[in-house]
Automatic annotation (TrEMBL):
It is an enzyme of class 6 (ligase). Its EC number is 6.5.1.1. Pfam families: LigD_Prim-Pol. Residues 28-281 form the DNA ligase D polymerase domain. It comes from the Bacteria. Keywords: Ligase. InterPro entries: LigD_pol_dom, MtLigD_Pol-like, NHEJ_LigD. Transmembrane segments: none annotated. The keyword Ligase applies. Gene3D superfamilies: DNA primase, PRIM domain. This is Non-homologous end-joining DNA ligase. One of its GO terms (molecular function) is DNA ligase (ATP) activity. NCBIfam families: ligD_pol.
Length: 297
């Protein structure tokens, strides 16, 4: 029988706590749940009011992975859901994570957390911009740092402050807080940035997803600004060989990453110390006072 834990008045059955999920590090499911409990104060604001998509990996990253938007079977009735539009006018419900009990319930499913760039009350009206910098081998996160620094300056020229996080995989994500803007307008602006980066940085950048174009270059993926797309949330663990995290980073760390990309790999055990040192580096993204408009035209 799974042990019953009470979290802020909610009773949770947390299962298989000794199960090793990440064989490379011996990280257990119990340690994964502990990670989310420790980071919850920073993590929850980035999930709140956003319909959550789950990449589930219940047997660890070496087992079956599957993506789901629907609330899983057996979802407790106290877990909040919201109705969202799907393709061809269909509507369905998705989980929203507003509190620690819901976060721990979801973490017990063993998932990556993915969110759209808009809030549930206004689907398709973005409050943030995202650019996913994805290196094609032999390029690495070092080249992503070069591109990120250029994009930071370019966004600043439009009055938009960019923040960075690791993807938890190979690359970097740049994010910015926006005044509410239709997703299609944000997508068009982001595509323009990708094209400008390709023109300015020459052989370093590609703005198209075509794999044949990507070896040795950084793909500036602007498509995740589309209303139907999602991005790995800040602080989520990733379903990789080790328990790497999509971790907020400072711009000094991005500068240093050009020469030493290993400095931009963060695992679950690193994040508590970073939160004590820096707080939430992406806190401005959830501060309405820091949001900026897209430039006219």
């Amino acid at each position: 029988m799974s042990p019953i834990t009470e979290v802020e008045g909610r009773r949770l059955a947390l299962s298989n706590l000794d199960k090793v999920l990440y064989t490379a590090t011996g990280t257990t499911k119990g340690e994964v749940l502990h990670y989310y409990a420790v980071t919850a104060d920073a993590f929850l604001p980035h999930l709140r009011d956003r319909p959550i998509s789950f990449l589930r990996y219940p047997d660890g990253p070496d087992g079956q992975l599957f993506f789901t938007k629907n609330p899983p079977q057996g979802t407790p009735d106290w877990v909040r859901t919201v109705e969202v539009s799907r393709t061809e006018g269909q509507r369905a419900r998705q989980v929203i994570i507003q509190d620690l009990p819901t976060l721990m319930w979801a973490a017990n499913l063993v998932v990556e957390f993915h969110t759209p760039q808009w809030l549930a009350p206004e689907p398709g009206v973005a409050d943030r911009l995202v650019l996913d910098l994805d290196p094609g081998a032999p390029a690495s996160v070092a080249e992503c740092c070069e591109v990120a620094l250029w994009l930071r300056e370019r966004l600043a020229a439009d009055g938009i402050e960019a923040y960075a996080k690791t993807s938890g995989s190979k690359g970097l994500h740049l994010l910015a807080a926006l005044e509410p803007t239709p997703s299609e307008e944000v997508s068009a602006y982001a595509k323009g940035l990708a094209l400008e980066a390709q023109e300015a940085l020459g052989e370093l950048v590609v703005h198209r997803m075509t794999r044949a174009l990507r070896p040795g270059k950084v793909f500036v993926d602007f498509s995740q600004n589309a209303a139907a797309k999602t991005t790995a949330a800040p602080y989520t663990l990733r379903a990789r060989v080790e328990p790497t995290v999509s971790a907020p980073v400072t711009w000094d760390e991005v500068e240093e990453g050009r020469a030493d990309p290993a400095r931009l790999v963060f695992r679950a055990a690193d994040i508590g110390v970073r939160l004590e040192r820096y707080g939430d580096l992406l806190g401005p993204l959830v501060d309405p006072g820091r949001a900026r408009p897209l430039p006219k035209g």
